[in-house]
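During the reporting period the student researcher (J.K.) took over the structure-prediction task from the postdoctoral fellow and processed the backlog of single-chain submissions. One of the processed entries is reproduced below for the supervisory committee.
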Amino acid sequence: MISVEQALILVDTHTKATEKTTTITLPQSLGYVLAKDIVSPINMPPFRQSAMDGYALGSTDEKKFSLVGEVQAGDDQSPTIVKGEAVRIFTGAPVPFGAKAVVMQEKVSINDTQVILQESASINSNIRPEGEQIKKGEVALIKGTVITPAGIGYLATLGITHVEVYQKPSIAVIATGNELIPPGQTLKHGQIYESNSIMLSTALQASGYTHVDCHKVEDNYEATKFLLQNVIAQYDVVLISGGISVGDYDFVGKALRDLEVEEIFYKVKQKPGKPLYFAKKNYTTIFALPGNPASSLSCFYIYALPMIKKISGYAQYKSKLRALISNSEYSKKGQRAEFLKAKVEGEQVTILDGQASSMLRSFALSNVLVYLPEEISEIKVGDPIQIINLA
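J.K. obtained the following structure tokens:
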């Protein structure tokens, strides 16, 4: 049995960022990582642009101007003005040739066709110069950038419609157990509703991974081996929930051994999630997560999701610990490291009731995990503690 720190190092060491790329449309690119620099094809803005509604002035050393026209946003022609002239202008409109400044409409008064300044204007005030944000040929976003909604908006303003990104891994989620039935059916004695595959697949979707297929297998060796052989051949990542322990009907470990996967580690000195398994087979990465729901989800956030992000090309993929102040007391039973479901409000952390590995209710109310290393046995109110955000 290895420590949490050793397990994290082994997952990192045996995970490699993909070199596979694909070109997709800009709206599809959310959450992907750029595979090459994007160079701006235009100046942005592509012309001198008014920063507000107001009046473009032909000079700045006068108080009165003759109103000679109007320019709206989207106009493809712009007048030329000279000293003593002004043009009505609107936000985003091209600034007339010869204009020295734009004065906001609240700072003038109008007398027939005469514009009268209430205060002096300065040269180039309220004018966005051509190429102020970026110039044609400059790098807009560098390789390795994670594409966000703001990034998509930014690239759209440059007229970009497609981007080259690193491929996200294909992922299979497998739930094991005779007792599991889909929600919506009537429970018989001894049965429970299957939640882990739904939980894990939606956790992946929340992180931007949509190529996820869920599978269910009963506690049968041949069926387990057959399914594992197929998914390992077809998917980049396989997440197995349950069946990895050493019970009479836990067949995952035996099936994986018989499929000659490369076991990296099995069992971590932690609670919950002791029976965590990590392996590789050719180009496929395999996690066998504990069957208890809270254990499964904890191990997903701590180990599996960072690994998946690394494969996807993320530079910042590791779960970050940060220190906050405990609002709770907690005493550890045993010597293992622990991950505790908790809720952060402001700068205070409340450790929730219901820490059993089978309980999801407290997980549903939590927004962080508290990490309690092996060497720390208790937490008191006011103690600094380490937390991991659930994202």
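The committee noted the following: The chain has a mean pLDDT of 95.
J.K. will present the remaining backlog at the next meeting.
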